[in-house]
Amino acid sequence: TAIVWYSPDQQPSALQCSLSGKMGVCRDVPKYPVIYEEPGFKQVVKNFRAGEYQTMAVCTLLSLPYGYFAGTARLPQMRVPSMIMSGIIGIHGGFFLAYQQSGGRLMGRIANDAEVNELMK
Questions:
Q1: Where are the strands (E) in 25-75, listed by range?
Q2: Measured between alpha carbons, how far is residue 42 from residues 39, 47, 51, 102 in Å?
Q3: Is 117 exposed, middle or buried (0-12, 13-18, 19+ CB in 10 A)?
Q4: How large a percentage of the chain has pLDDT more than 70?
Q5: Predicted TM-score (pTM) of this structure
Q6: Are 119 and 3 in contact (CB under 8 A)?
Q7: Looking at residue 98, what DSSP letter applies?
Q8: pLDDT per residue over 45-59, tens digit each?
Q9: CA distance 40 to 45
Q10: Considering the chain, what percentage of its residues have pLDDT values greater than 90?
């Protein structure tokens, strides 16, 4: 794995970014060193930090009581099914937030000092 360091005269233009890959459209130049220009699913998930797992847990735990009390509003027998569904939505939301943070670090969009230092060893 190589880190891509862009010098000011070598930075890709927004047009090059939008035509270059499958991952999405980048409209600006990365502010931090790029570790992977187009990280795959496994690379992004493998790069999760403890904070990302904490984000998933917090989203899930906050959604459970919300679902429970939302189910209580009209039909008391819907408490548990509503809580379970809300928990499923919460864990997916937490995963998407964690995935966005991890992928952003790998693509150089978010500060990635720990990843760069690990690769420099």
A1: none
A2: 8, 8, 18, 11
A3: exposed
A4: 78
A5: 0.74
A6: yes
A7: H
A8: 999 999 999 999 999
A9: 9
A10: 45
